[in-house]
Write a structure and sequence with these properties.
The protein is mainly alpha-helical. It has a single domain, classed as Up-down Bundle (Growth Hormone, Chain: A). The chain contains 18 helices and no strands. α3 runs antiparallel to α4 and α7 runs antiparallel to α13. It is globular, with a radius of gyration of 20 Å. The relative contact order is 0.16.
Length: about 400
């Protein structure tokens, strides 16, 4: 039996069904609204960056800064949640989300590239908190209900996949003299609404949370944790790597802004739509198998991109990329839940996300330079390297588990 399953059964902090249900709906709705923050940044970041940056090589820097913000703020957000509770961390993230939109609006008004980068850093901080929703919904639940609750909260991203791109499409020309200014103001308003919803989330208090638990190094060296981190990192890195470059690559190949926005919309929907059944698939077939399917689908998405540069090639690439991310990342997240006790959860979950976002930053920084220097095809070929490593890690974890 997994470590956490043994601990949580004896834990007295199981939430009542009504509270758990309320948390699920609040976190799913907040995921839908707050998730739109990331969609807006990815849909506009490279394009606005190309408009404001002093050199084309820095066009994707704002999105890379977004990823740096995620990596830099995961551990502080986890510490905030550990000391003061999840709700405080959620509200702090919402404040960062509001500032993201307001500063970006000012940046495009005055054509300040550096301020736009600051705004995307705060957007990354917001996204780091939003990603903890998937773990927060499992607090106080018995182990058999956790995979499905985790995936249902992520399903809220389907709405984010509609809100984000439509927010961009419907508002980017609203203030004709300053493209995207109204978009970023709308983004800030959505963050306010999400924060109000999150205020009602309740989490159990685990008494040992502040002092108990094993050394973090002992937990991190578990083969199951290593495979979870590698698979989660590869899934998120390649998703970010290709999603960062795709809108700019479409623009470079003569496709319209509207086509790019539509591609991102379907990509985000594909990222979250499978979540309605991913949890059930994990419970039936195991997290390792679902993660492996995600890695395969992500590889197929890159292969589709190699077949051509028409708009439908980009769209199919983005759709398969989204589905692959869902299976790979949720499978990896379910593996993490098997690696810790209740009193260790915030430290272990934060470490997992810190490693994932730190590695993802590397991919994000390199994608813009690779695209401008070598072209879209090289970007696609490079994406296969982390996928091979992830597949090897999953096989190794399976072999170790069979020998144990």
């Amino acid at each position: 039996m997994p470590i956490e399953s043994q601990s949580i059964i004896s834990d007295s902090s199981i939430l009542s069904p009504n509270v758990s249900r309320s948390n699920l709906w609040r976190l799913a709705l907040a995921q839908a609204l707050a998730g739109a923050n990331s969609v807006v940044v990815f849909a506009t970041g490279a394009i606005v960056g190309s408009m404001l940056a002093p050199t084309p090589l820095l066009a994707t820097l704002p999105i890379s800064i977004f990823v740096v913000g995620m990596a830099a703020c995961v551990l502080p957000a986890g510490e905030l949640a550990r000391k003061y509770g999840r709700r405080v961390a959620f509200i702090a993230g919402s404040v960062a989300g509001v500032l993201t939109g307001l500063l970006a609006m000012v940046a495009v008004f005055y054509e300040w590239f550096w301020m736009f980068c600051i705004s995307t850093f705060l957007g990354g901080a917001y996204a780091a908190v939003v990603l903890s929703f998937r773990f927060a919904v499992t607090d106080g639940l018995p182990p058999e209900k956790r995979p499905q609750a985790l995936s249902l909260v992520m399903a809220g991203g389907i709405v984010a996949g509609v809100i984000g791109p439509q927010l961009v499409t419907q508002t980017m020309y609203l203030w004709s003299e300053t493209m995207y200014a109204a978009t970023f103001l709308a983004q800030a308003i959505v963050a306010v609404i999400s924060g109000i919803i999150l205020f009602g989330v309740q989490s159990p208090i685990v008494k040992e949370q502040l002092s108990g638990g094993r050394p973090l190094t002992d937990i991190a060296l578990q083969p199951r944790f290593i495979s979870a981190v590698v698979c989660g990192s590869a899934s998120y890195m390649i998703m970010n790597f290709l999603m960062t470059s795709a809108p700019l690559a479409m623009h470079m190949h003569g496709h319209s802004h509207e086509s790019s926005n539509l591609g991102i919309q379907w990509h985000v929907i594909a990222m979250y739509a499978p979540s309605f059944f991913t949890g059930k698939l994990i419970a039936r077939f195991g997290a390792v198998r679902i993660s492996a399917i995600g890695i395969i689908l992500t590889g197929l998405s890159a292969a589709v991109g190699l077949f051509g540069e028409d708009v439908y090639h980009f769209w199919w690439l983005l759709i398969l990329l989204g589905i692959g991310w869902n299976f790979g990342f949720l499978g990896a997240s379910a593996l993490v839940l098997d690696c810790h006790k209740p009193e260790e959860k915030n430290r272990v979950q934060s470490l997992n996300d810190f490693i994932i976002f730190g590695l993802m930053a590397i991919g994000s920084f390199s994608s813009g330079g690779l695209l401008n220097a070598y072209g879209w095809e090289i970007v696609l070929w490079v994406s296969f390297v982390p996928l091979v490593l992830a597949a090897a890690a999953l096989v190794a974890a399976k072999v170790v588990r069979l020998k144990a």
